[in-house]
Amino acid sequence: MQSYGIKSLLEKGKDLVLQEVVVCGWVKSFRSNRFIALNDGSTIHNIQIVVNFEDFDENLIKQISTAASLRVKGEVVESQGAGQEIEIIAKEIKVLGVAPSEQVQETILQPKQHSLETLREQAHLRFRTNLFGAIMRVRNSLMFAVHKYFNENGFVYVNTPIITGSDAEGAGEMFHVTNFNLENLPRTTDGKVDYAQDFFGKATNLTVSGQLEGEAAAMGLGKVYTFGPTFRAENSNTTRHLAEFWMIEPEIAFMHLDQCMDLSEDFLKYVITYAMENCKDDLAFLADRYTKEQQTKPAAERSDLGLMERLDYVLNNKFVRLSYTEALEILKESKPNKKGKFKYPIDGWGTDLQSEHERYLVEKHFKTPVILFDYPQEIKAFYMRLNDDQKTVRAMDVLFPGIGEIIGGSEREDRLDVLDQRMAQFGIDSNELGWYRDTRRFGTVPHSGFGLGLERLVLFVTGMGNIRDVIPFPRTPGSAEF
Ligand code: 4AD
Ligand code: MG
């Protein structure tokens, strides 16, 4: 007797007719005491189990209810009903775990429409829903595609530390790591916390980026990437920010920014294509949800493209590339700016762009993904290569419709003297980053890299609107449940 996952069972379809099989799963619904829709998470589709209740004990039938788990042995037959090719006539049913109906009713397992907020509150149960199942399978597919892409292109996957002493981005948005007794902190004679007595003999934090260590690796391995969790204690309660998210950071020796832009575009198109080819059913379901959701929005916010058209659109168009300075001119002259519609009006050169500006460029002006480059040096990190104008750095941001910034990257400052100048300017202790300086002291080379926030990519591909809905257990300000 062969056991099957529901996905492979449905794929084999009619080839299995008249065979005895075993399947396990959770009950999605049990109609007329006769038809069980069973799902095991391998696919969005269910297998229908037909129960001839004369063949079974009444008490067993009573235990079969929504959310209960079952092991079913039975015979595959062609389905009489519409909607499925095959079904299973149950011969033996074992209830592995009951799910009392009155208790199920208090949860999101009850089969009816639940709000995304309610699903979030029961994040431990939402893996069982069609929606979250689809999102998680798409997420998985994207992660796999990331590894596949880099592997096929000669990159080495390196693991950078999660606990670190450095603040790569220099934004000071770090979670401290300590094993001090916080009620009784050791102090130096001048009253400061004495980190020399802490576990690592110095102050440490959770990493905000693996880039600096990634650069060190690229200075020997050539082409590397990291893919790990990153942590930011930034107090932004938005639909695009998490305190814990997963970042993919390639770093490439001998690469200049233009080639790095090519890489980012090729890479994004590859992983999106992979998910589209390998998650057809899940994306069809998500596209349907997306369309319905768009209809509830005011006309001005509605996307005129469906989810799949939106993905195709990104794949089939070359990303527009323009400098920060050019973008600023467009924004300055834009209707929303002139009419005072931006929350942050565009004034002088040098201010950082807000998400509303990024989205205007992508969604209204160019109507295609945009790569902005050469940002003012004051608003970007210390490690970015200073341009000859002494005003801008070789930074790039890839901006996507509905998302805004999906990738941030740069060519790195490879000249030791300029790096030292930049570190001094940003108040970075060069003793702390002596190891980083070493990469410029011994055989420095031009190099570039970027960071992609996995969850922002999953948001884009699934058409979801809130980043909390594309990671299993979101961590946001004021919330670390589960
Ligand atoms: O632009 P960021 O801060 O760049 C870096 O960290 C560089 N060290 C990357 C590099 O060059 N190796 O972050 C990169 C990307 C952003 O574009 C965004 O997609 C994502 O990480 N990101 C976040 N995603 C979710 N929640 C947050 N709080 C995020 N902050 C950044
Ligand atoms: Mg950025």
In a nutshell, what does this entry contain?
Helices cover 33% and strands 22% of the residues. It is α+β, with helices and mostly antiparallel strands.
Give the secondary structure arrangement, pairings included.
Elements (H helix, E strand, L loop, with lengths): L1 E2 L2 H7 L7 E12 L3 E5 L7 E4 L7 H6 L5 E10 L7 E12 L3 H4 L11 H6 L8 H23 L3 E2 L5 E2 L11 E2 L26 E3 L4 H11 L1 E9 L12 E10 L3 H22 L1 H16 L11 H10 L3 E4 H9 L2 H4 L16 H12 L3 E7 L15 E9 L3 E8 L4 H10 L8 H8 L5 E7 H9 L20
Helix pairs in contact: 5-7, 5-8, 5-15, 7-9
The site of 4-amino-1,4-dioxobutan-2-aminium adenosine-5'-monophosphate has 24 residues, from strand 12, strand 16, strand 17 and helix 15.
Defining key terms:
OB fold (Dihydrolipoamide Acetyltransferase, E2P), binds magnesium ion, alpha+beta, globular, binds 4-amino-1,4-dioxobutan-2-aminium adenosine-5'-monophosphate, 482 residues, BirA Bifunctional Protein, domain 2, 17 strands
Structure commentary:
This protein is of the alpha+beta class and 482 residues long. It has two domains: 104 residues, Beta Barrel (OB fold (Dihydrolipoamide Acetyltransferase, E2P)); 306 residues, BirA Bifunctional Protein, domain 2, CATH 3.30.930.10. It is built from 15 helices and 17 strands. An eight-stranded mixed beta sheet has the order 7-11-12-17-16-15-14-13. A hairpin with a 3-residue loop joins strand 2 and strand 3. Helix 5 crosses helix 7, helix 5 packs across helix 8 and helix 7 runs antiparallel to helix 9. The radius of gyration is 27 Å and the shape is globular. The chain starts with a strand and ends in a 20-residue tail after the last helix. The mean pLDDT is 96. Bound molecules: 4-amino-1,4-dioxobutan-2-aminium adenosine-5'-monophosphate (4AD) and magnesium ion.
